Automatic annotation (TrEMBL), chains A, B:
Gene3D superfamilies: Tetracycline Repressor, domain 2. It holds the Pfam family TetR_N. InterPro entries: Homeodomain-like_sf, HTH-type_TetR-like_transc_reg, HTH_TetR, TetR_C_27. Residues 4-64 form the HTH tetR-type domain. The keyword Transcription regulation applies. Residues 27-46 bind DNA. Keywords: DNA-binding, Transcription, Transcription regulation. PROSITE patterns: HTH_TETR_2 (PS50977). GO terms for molecular function: DNA-binding transcription factor activity; transcription cis-regulatory region binding. This is TetR family transcriptional regulator. The keyword Transmembrane does not apply.
Length: 169, 169
């Protein structure tokens, strides 16, 4: 019995290909091979290599949205964002580096992700949402992954939160 | 008439070598060749390739210190830091990328640079100095160079400064 070929199955296979072969290999031919299907079958779901790479990047970023969506207090939200990024990088540093490289190339997908995060924060703190996200860049932007193993990182985040979201507010 | 071989002449030559050949070439043999001297003559000033690479990185970062040192108001200081980094990246993007790569490998030199910046800010705002520098990371850390061509970058910095250094303070 063969499972139906869904977009979700293709994206899960694409993540496996990324994990094993790095960011260059997230293309239709390699993913079709991993699934044992024709590349035509994959093209029916993703019209191009670019569409597949966008979708796999969006799926990764969406996992963070799922964690953040229920949180409605800005300090807790920023702490959760930082902890989720750091945790993901710690558990599988190579896959994190692979997705970071994909994000560097998929700027439209990253713009959507940033706009989503700004929207969440704006619902909590109004027009301070965007500067609040930017002021905590060091604690969630993948470019700073090498600073996240610093034992002071959580303490540093608390100090920045005290500055940008003073408890008296 | 030959000029005396000073450390400063060696470091200026090392920057020329970096500009022409990228970060891998900042070594004693290439710099000695560029100066037309023996590598023994360079070793009398810098005992190893590592010492030379540290010194050339430190010299580059020191140029920012020279700009910042006279400024004693925290908003003006952060604006000057951000403008100096952005300006340097805009004038010679390749040399900026080369020095960024050197900084990535010379973490002790970068730690000194960060400690110097924190010290400057602490003299102005006390123990808010360190979180203030971290909250403005996006606007001066070389990892964000690709965001600096955004036409909103200066506006974004002002919004973050309003958050971290409210005018009423």
């Amino acid at each position: 019995m063969t499972q139906p070929l869904t977009s979700e199955r293709i994206l899960a296979a694409a993540e496996d290909v990324l994990r094993r072969h790095g960011p260059q290999k997230a293309n239709v031919v390699d993913v079709a091979r991993a699934l044992g299907v024709s590349h035509g079958a994959v093209y029916r779901h993703f019209a191009s290599k670019q569409a597949l790479r966008e979708a796999v990047t969006r799926r990764w970023l969406h996992e963070f949205h799922t964690i953040l969506e229920p949180i409605d207090e800005p300090r807790a939200w920023i702490r959760a964002l930082s902890a989720a990024k750091r945790g993901t990088a710690r558990v599988d540093p190579e896959l994190f580096a692979t997705y970071s490289a994909l994000c560097d190339e998929q700027s439209a997908v990253v713009d959507e992700h940033v706009a989503w995060m700004v929207g969440q924060l704006e619902a909590m703190v109004g027009d301070k949402g965007r500067p609040l996200l930017q002021a905590t860049t060091r604690f969630h932007h993948p470019a700073h992954v090498h600073e996240w193993s610093d034992p002071e990182i959580e303490h540093d985040l608390e100090r920045v939160l005290d500055l940008v979201l003073p408890p008296a507010q």
